[in-house]
Design brief:
Helix content is 47%, strand content 14%. Strand 4, helix 7 and strand 5 form a beta-alpha-beta unit. The strands form 2 sheets. It has a 5-stranded parallel beta sheet. A 4-stranded parallel beta sheet has the order 6-7-8-9. The protein has 318 residues and is of the alpha/beta class. The two termini are 13 Å apart. The protein is built from 14 helices and 9 strands. The chain has one domain: Alpha-Beta Barrel (TIM Barrel). Bound molecules: zinc ion. Zinc ion binds next to strand 1.
Length: 318
């Protein structure tokens, strides 16, 4: 059966690299990886996941690595029906990478992904919450400089973080036409979603599921039409929810909050777009609503949005 069309707004490119490709890249960069990647991917807790993410991201070092992983993931996602991706990456300042090499590798990969696989890819660099305000502003400057090459948003991610140090970076990005897509409300509570909205001018929230604990906030998100980029299986793997049945997704949707569905880190969470959508649909929710939330939340130009809208309108949803 041909998969129905999907829009994925929350996927970390470093977390999409399947074991075989990661081993190949690590080998050509002479980077030591543990032999048994699969057992490495069995996380004890969220901090362990972040450590593993940093270890595997360390294998990615050159223009060619960055370019390749965008094209590879577009091929995989397209097989699951993806027509549009907003892909996240970390600039890797502390690893001595050439930042232009990082940005241009990802941007060229995005262009090639469209040519080879027909998937529109836009990019949203992420500020790890261990970065200083100055480092965050540098990421914002690069994001603006690469806007014409497909960078559309700026994010911030990590465990819990204060928004004040990053407010200037997000304000600069906004002035340069770059959207705000911070992580919040994943493990941190509803307050973190509030700070992302007020402190960083969030256009969307990555995760945002803990908003469910604050009914006033849920009403506000629904009223503003703010899209949450929900990743059901990621939340299960990191322990953000104890069981899938506990997932706030159906409550958020019932309250009128627009939710898009994504994998977050498919290779590291042993998932893919089809499995995450199946998890989301298991609550009796319609895939069309996830697609429409994706169209509404995408940071793309209006011409692309109209095209995505047409894809949704023309598809024979069951
Ligand atoms: Zn994420």
């Amino acid at each position: 059966m041909t998969p129905y069309p999907k829009i994925e707004l929350h996927v970390h490119l470093e977390g999409t690299v399947r074991a075989a490709a990661l081993k190949q890249i690590a080998k050509r960069n002479d980077y030591a990886l543990p032999d048994d990647l699969e057992s490495l991917y069995a996380y004890r807790d969220f901090r362990h996941f972040i450590e593993t993410f940093e270890l595997t991201a360390g294998a990615l070092q050159r223009y060619e690595d960055f370019r390749q992983i965008v094209v590879d993931y577009a091929a995989e996602a397209s097989a699951h029906g993806a027509v549009y991706l907003e892909a996240i990456f970390v600039p890797g300042f502390w690893r001595g990478l050439d930042t232009d090499e990082v940005f241009s590798g990802y941007c060229d990969g995005a262009r090639e992904a469209r040519e080879l696989h027909g998937v529109e890819v836009r990019l949203t660099p992420d500020i790890p919450s261990v970065y200083s305000a100055e480092e965050a502003e540098t990421v914002a400057r690069f994001a603006v400089a690469y806007r014409e090459r497909g960078v559309v948003g700026l994010g911030v991610g990590g465990l819990e973080y204060p928004t004040e140090p990053y407010a200037r970076a997000f304000a600069f990005a906004r002035e340069g036409g770059i959207g705000s897509v911070p992580h919040a409300g994943e493990l941190a509570g509803a307050d973190s979603v509030r700070s992302a909205l007020d402190g960083l001018g969030a256009d969307r929230i990555r995760h945002g599921i803990r908003a469910v604990d604050d009914s006033g906030l849920v009403r506000e998100l629904a009223g503003r039409g703010t899209v949450l980029d929900v990743c059901p299986l990621s939340n299960l793997r990191t322990g953000a929810v104890a069981t899938l049945a506990d997932h706030p997704l159906p409550r958020l949707v019932a309250a009128g909050v627009r939710c898009s569905i994504s994998t977050d880190d498919p290779a590291m969470f042993d998932t893919d777009l089809t499995r995450d959508y199946e998890a989301a649909e298991s609550f009796g929710l319609s895939p069309r609503s996830f697609y429409d939330a994706g169209v509404a939340g995408a940071l793309c130009d209006e011409e692309t949005r109209a095209r995505l809208q047409a894809v949704g309108a023309e598809y024979a949803w069951r």
